[in-house]
Amino acid sequence: MLHAQIQTAVSLVYPPQCSCCDALVESDVGLCGACWREMNFISGAVCESCGCALPGESDGYRLECDDCLSNPRPWSQGRAALEYEGKARELVLGLKHGDRTELAPMAAGWMLRAAQPILQDNPIVTPVPLHWSRMLRRKYNQSALLAESFARHGRLDYWPDLLKRTRLTPSLDRKSKEDRFRILRNAITAHPRHCELIHGRVVVLVDDVMTSGATLSACTEACLRAGAADVRVVVLARARKSVTPQ
Asked: What is the tens place of the pLDDT at every residue in 149-159?
C-alpha cells in the first residue's frame, strides 16, 4: 500500500514521458501516439531468413529477400520487430549507447510478438556475446537485456553465456560486408562449460540489430559446431536491404 502511494506521488511530480520524446504517456515506459506511428514495425509478408518486410502477402511458401538469396544464412529462420530507421533507430541507439536499459522489456515484447512463428520445439534463448573488455567499458550487454526479457515474457529457457567471444574485434561500423565476415571469423565459440546445454537443442539467438548478419552467422556456426539441432535468430531491428521476394 505504501509503495503504491509513493509511486502515485512520484508520478504526480514526475509524470511519465514517452520513451522517444517528451510527450506525456500513461505508463513509465511507453510511446506516445506520434512516436508509435513513426515506429516502423514489421508485419505481413517477411523474409523467412532475416525477417525484413516483403511486398505482397504470404502465400504459405517460404519467402526470402534478395540479400538472403545471395548470401544464404547458416541459421534456419529469423524475425525482426522493426525496420532500423527513424524513431526505431533512435530507440535502438538509446538502448545500445545511451544507458536506456529500461527500454529492454518493452522492446523484447515487440520481438516476442514478431518471433512467435519460430519459437516451437522448446528452444533455449541466448544473446550475442560481448567481449569481456567491452563489457567492462559499457557496463551491460544490450543483447543480453533483450534476451532475458524476451525469454521471461515467452516463458522460454534462457542461458546468458552459452557463447563467448574468444578475442576482441574492432568496431564493425563503416566496415564492408566482406570485412565484417572476415573480422568475426572464429571470434565466437560455444562456452566450454555449457556445450552440453547446446547439444541437440534448438537455439534462438537474440541481438539488437542485424545489418550484414556477420555476427549472427559467427554465433550460429559456433552453436552448430557444438551440436545444436537448429539455430534461429530474433533481432529488435533489421537494417533496410533489397527485399524483392523470389
From this structure: 999 999 999 99
